Amino acid sequence: MQLNKTFTVILLGVIAALLFIPFLGRVHLFDWDEINFAECSREMIKLDDYSRIYVNFKPFWEKPPMFFWMQTVAMKMFGFNEFAARFPNALCGIATLITLFLCGQKIYDRKFGILWALAYGGSLFPNMYFKSGLIDPWFNLFIFLSLYFFILYHWKKNGFDRTDLQKKPLYYAVWAGIFMGLAVLTKGQVALMMFLLVLGVYLIYNRFKIYFGWGHALLFLVVASLLTFSWYGYETIKNGPWFITSFLKYQYRLFTTHDAGQKGFPGYHFVVILIGCFPASIFAIPAFFRMHYTSRYDKDFKMWMIMLFWVVTILFTIVQSRIIHYSSMAWFPVTFLAAYSFYKWERKDAAYKKYVGVLAGILGSLEGFVLLLVAVIALNIKKLVPYVSDTFAQANMQADVHWNGLEGLVGILMIVSVIMGLVWLRKRAFIKAAWAFFGGTAIVIFLAAAIIVPKVERYSQGAAIDFLIQRQGEDCYVNSLGYWSYAPFFYAQKEPPTNPKSYEEWWLLTGDIDKPAYFITKVDRVDGYTKQHPDLKELYRKNGFVFLKREIPAKQ
User: Could you name the Gene Ontology cellular component terms for this entry (predicted)?
Assistant: First the structure.
């Protein structure tokens, strides 16, 4: 059995590596977050300062440093590039699938562990985020592991019908604290907030019966605090409270206000999860309802996952800023519940519901059709330009990107996978259906990342990134005009500024600059700048971007 477990872990790790590592550097990092975080890590290395985060060589207090530490290690190995920026999350993908297999096997059996890993790796956004340079994959994994070890602690302390929990409750409480500390170091105290809210909901579900020891709870907090103090405390002692205070104020602002373009609508996260976590989102639905439970811990763990789902979705519905990855912690319970449905159907512990197949067929076919439509639109995109009113979008659509129509096969593959899954569902071959839905989706995402996303990126920002890369090594200033972008810092490989005036846009446009200044703006905004600043020389324009240069003023 141990050999079988070891072989499965190795095989799962190899498959995950093949899914997540190839093509990491095939497409440029996307504004804002991907480039923002990569630039923070690059500046850590440039400044040789690993305790404080900077962007544009100014203190950046929005995030703790854990993820940036990971990226700096990757950048020292692979250089300042896209592959290095995304490599930590590829490793997180491998770690997550192996973790879910091991957790699922421990709670249920090997089949469930495989189903859970399959559901997570074979759903749209959960898979895609392992190919990104965003913070959330590691953040979510650390929170999940903290909650998982706390659940094991609870089971051990309260005598649940488990014989394989050989360690003392203290052991599980300490590990829960370690992973909570890592989560807080990765993205902030919202990790502890989610954790405590889930525990509070479980307390209500448990009819206010205290299910933990106060000494163990204190130990959990002490362990988590000691880990977080390694940065919060060190930074405060070294540089004073200003940086940490600014960080905490920013975290509070995220919950009470929204940034421009981030307001959304009340049901935003439910729609995001439904569409973005397909196929798991559909197959999770039956598991929200009562099923036959084979043991006390079977029912209990399912309830923990349902509570985690509702805490995450309701919490981030209340939060004013609504961004896709804010509710990404819900992907863990959603994929668990999807695996749970297949597992119970296979064991005949629950009756298969036909409505699930209908919904999966409709949503899966729509998503496959959208992928197919992308290729069709791309082949005819220049014909659509007259029907678009936005000047910048019109110019984006003029990008010289070669499409041959074969990209549409990705959408067709998605539809075929859905059809195969529906056939197996009809035959009540549930494990084969799970492989069709989740395995097919994983392959679709792999192919889309390789052949569709790089071409789409050429329309949105490709020309601007190309221009910035050409500026690398040139002694000059580079700045965006009329919109905010982190791209000039990372892709022009900005050096620490020697002239503090260079931070001021007015000085770059009108001041006595000491080296050439380049600017990137958009076609619908350029006239306002060139009319007001006649010494701006237009170099060229491409795909909606206009590239300007201001030479060093002649001495009078």
Answer: plasma membrane
Same domain flag for 370 and 346: no
Nearest Cα to Cα of residue 15 among 90, 106, 124, 86 = 90
Omega before 32 within 30 of 0, i.e. cis: yes
Q: 3-state SS string over 87-101? A: HHHHHHHHHHHHHHH
pLDDT at 322: 65
Q: What is the pLDDT of residue 1?
A: 45
Distance of CA 256 to the CA centre of its chain: 22
CB 65 within 8 A of CB 53: yes
What total of structural domains would you count in the chain?
Answer: 3
Rounded CA-CA distance 264/396 in Å is 25
Q: Indicate whether 497 and 410 sit together in one domain.
A: no
CB-side neighbour CA atoms (13 Å) of 353: 16
Cβ proximity of 202 and 211 under 8 Å? yes
In a domain, 369, yes or no: yes
Residue 480 structural domain: 465-550
In this structure, what is the dihedral angle of CA atoms 345, 273, 251, 147, given to the nearest 10 degrees? 10
Residue in 471, 491, 458 with CA at minimum distance from that of residue 548: 471
Whether residue 330 sits in one domain with residue 409: no
* Residue 149: predicted pLDDT: 97
Name residue, tokens 């996303």: 453
Positions in the chain whose pLDDT score sits under 70: 1-3, 162-163, 252-264, 320-322, 556
- For the four alpha carbons of 506, 507, 512 and 516, in that order, the dihedral sign comes to negative
**pLDDT value for 282:** 98
Question: Could you tell me the two tokens for 259?
Answer: 């940034």
Angle of helix 136-157 relative to helix 214-239, nearest 10 degrees?
150
Predicted TM-score (pTM) of the model is: 0.93
Q: What is the DSSP string of 210-259?
A: --S-HHHHHHHHHHHHHHHHHHHHHHHHHH-SHHHHHHHHHHHHHHH---
